[in-house]
Amino acid sequence: MLRLALRRAASSSRLLGNLPNPEPLLNPQRRTLFIQTASTPNPQSLKFLPGRLVYETEDERGFSSTPSDPPHSPLSQRLFKSSPNITSCYLGIDFVTVNIDTSTSWEIIKPTIFSAIMDHYASGDPAVLSSSEVKSDTEILDDDSEVVAMIKELLEVRIRPAVQEDGGDIKYVSFTDETGIVQVRLEGSCVGCPSSSVTLKSGVENMLMHYIPEVKGVEAVDEEGSNQLQNMPEDVKTEEWNPEEDDGKPKMTYEERLKAAGIPFSE
């Protein structure tokens, strides 16, 4: 019996020796990638943290895209192709925020997203094509008024970091002197978030109005200029600026306003 077993083992070894070496089941880069997730205030949005650099820019600007956008981001395109239930993606420095529709659940779609992110890193493709780098929305331009410069500073230094912590972003769009309205664009987990309206009115609007009396309100608009928050809660309280109460009060300079907001001032 022992001799028979040895002959069979030798025969199997010879047969296997004639076969090509099997390819590894997984790319080594995929095996070493450990992706974590973090919840956001938006139940339809989730942060994926691969433990590696995702999208780095000098001013820490993220990249937002939807399935209908031009294919400027290989990573986003890979995610969109992996599932029709993904509605948008936001790429941060070290995270990817994915938004899904209500017809699926995270338990079902998470493995697909994990696989798409791992495939991206194994491919060696950039997260965003260099020709599609996002321009800074809060860069202070030569023709910006003092009010616009202050709005951009507050958005960049005080507001944006808190929003990005939850996997979203807020971008400056415009300011109208005649109405005092600041228009911004919400991205990432902020899109479709039930608490976005409260954050916009009680957080962003109140802060801007507190430090910049010329600001009388904040609106969130999409790429077409339409209101991003159609269902604004009516019970949201905001601190409105009354121009009559401000009459006779000394106006703070741009430098004094920045210091009051805790923002380092530099010429």
From TrEMBL:
Pfam families: Nfu_N, NifU. Gene3D superfamilies: Fe-S cluster assembly (FSCA), Scaffold protein Nfu/NifU, N-terminal domain. It comes from the Eukaryota. Residues 35-124 form the Scaffold protein Nfu/NifU N-terminal domain. Residues 225-252 are annotated as: Disordered. GO terms for biological process: iron-sulfur cluster assembly. GO terms for cellular component: mitochondrion. InterPro entries: FSCA_dom_sf (IPR034904), Nfu/NifU_N (IPR014824), Nfu/NifU_N_sf (IPR036498), NIF_FeS_clus_asmbl_NifU_C (IPR001075). One of its GO terms (molecular function) is iron-sulfur cluster binding. Belongs to the NifU family. This is Scaffold protein Nfu/NifU N-terminal domain-containing protein. It comes from Triparma strigata. The lineage of its organism: Eukaryota, Sar, Stramenopiles, Ochrophyta, Bolidophyceae.
